[in-house]
Each structure stands twice: as C-alpha cells, then as structure tokens.
Design brief:
Layout: H1 6-19, E1 24-28, H2 31-42, E2 46-52, E3 60-65, E4 78-80, E5 89-90, E6 104-109, E7 112-115, H3 116-122, E8 126-132
Antiparallel strand pairs: 1-3, 2-3, 4-8, 5-8, 6-7, 6-8
C-alpha cells in the first residue's frame, strides 16, 4: 500500500509503539527515515536502530525504543510540522526551539537532515520536518 506521507507514517508507528510499551517497531526504510532514526538515537530518544533486509523489495528499519523507567518513555511526543500539502520552511534566524529547549526540531537542509540546533550553528535554513520531545 502506498503511503502519501512516509515521515508521518514513521512518527505514527513510533508513537503507537510507545503508547503500548513495545520494545521495537519496524518501519519501511528510506534514506530520510534512516537520517531521522540517526537523529533520534543521537538525541537519546531511542536506544538504537538497524536495517533489516527481508525477502521483499524494500528493507525495514527496526527501531529499539528507549524507556527511562518502566512507566516513563524517552519519547513523550512527536509532531509532524511540514506536510505534503503545506510545506513549512524556516530561515536560519527563524529556527524554533521546542518545548523549552528540551525538545528537538528536526530539519531537512541543503547539507542533509539535522536538528534545529545544529542547523542554527551552521547558519542553515530549510524545511522543518517535525518536533520530538
């Protein structure tokens, strides 16, 4: 089945897995999703991820979710900002801080997918993909 917004699908799968306290979740792989998973790992929202090659035409990304304690997941919220119907772009001086600096804004720039903080340091603007807190 074709998915119109692959990033929103990935975020929804992660959100649903966190709600029911799963240890792992699998999403279809793409370069953008692997970059997003790398950012989530680097920021401490997930433990790790790996690429699973199955018999099908497309590999999957297996994401190992991180829980601070039995009841407290590391990811408390995910919000998709830029959508296929309404793209949201920000300039280098308009990059938002989210959730009082505790959350992470994820951006797609000319130098790849990175956090808003990293894009601000490099002086880059781009498409604001999502917020994670």
């Amino acid at each position: 089945m074709a998915v119109t917004d692959a990033i929103a699908d990935m975020l929804t799968r992660i959100r649903n897995a966190v709600v029911v306290r799963h240890d792992t979740v699998q999403v279809p792989a793409s370069n953008m999703k692997v970059s997003l998973a790398k950012i989530l790992k680097d920021e401490g929202f997930i433990r790790t991820y790996d690429i699973v090659r199955s018999g099908g035409p497309q590999p999957n990304i297996r994401i190992f979710l991180h829980y601070r304690s039995k009841e407290e997941p590391a990811i408390t919220g995910l919000k998709r900002v830029s959508k296929p119907g309404l793209r949201v772009y920000v300039k280098k001086n308009e990059i938002p801080r989210y959730y009082g600096g505790l959350g992470v804004a994820v951006m797609s720039t000319s130098q790849g997918v990175m956090t808003g903080r990293e894009a601000w340091r490099k002086g880059l603007g781009g498409e604001l993909l999502c917020y994670v807190w």
